[in-house]
Design a protein that fits this description.
256 residues; alpha/beta; two-stranded antiparallel sheet; 13 helices
Length: 256
Amino acid sequence: MKQTPLKFLGVQVDALSISELNSLIAESIKRNQKWIIANHNLHSLYIYHHDPKMRSFYALANYVHIDGMPLILLGRLLGFALKREQRVTYADWVWPLMSEAAQNGWRVFYLGSKPGVAERGARILREKFAPLQIATAHGYIDMRKDSQDNLATLAAIKAYKPHVLMVGMGMPRQEYWILNNLEHIHANAILTSGACMDYVAGVVPTPPRWMGKLGLEWSYRLLSEPKRLWRRYLLEPWFVARLFLREMWAFYDQAR
């Protein structure tokens, strides 16, 4: 039975661990249903509150897990009993997810990354988790619904018949693509996986896992890619801080 989503900072999230997320994927496959499993972090919160199309995407998502320790910490301050293991990022999740896929015979299709990167990551995963079934396609395509690129990508996914479709194009591009093409996507679990395969392939350095547990991954990523990420990590959090303070004020005002 689906647990009641938590509502704070203007969004809904599901407090899910890696094992619970893997169980949801297994359930979607068992039922032969199409489920979107999305995620929220500080960056997605900012986009969500500024972009109606992003809000439309999240309205369709079946589950939204928490990807970021800051959301765990802010949720705790707002009175929710969130646990550290309910922060799930793909740098941690991809390994147990691929292990589960290999053990259960799930077919995985990864769409995203620059040409050649996803396949390099897939080779690493196949070597580590034989007999993993994984196919890839790069994400540098013409996003228009009727473009040859897009139609060919959808045809490749349909032919492969994946149980798990990972779309790693970065936010909000990956969410837009799923929203625009959902009726033509043939897969059970559809995951918004960001730069997951870039980390696996070693193209983008993976932050030390202790930094993730302490909520400091953002600083490592900012130092690694300052030109691309400075706005995300230095400006957008101020908007989220305002949301938090407004909600905190309402929380204490109601308690008086």
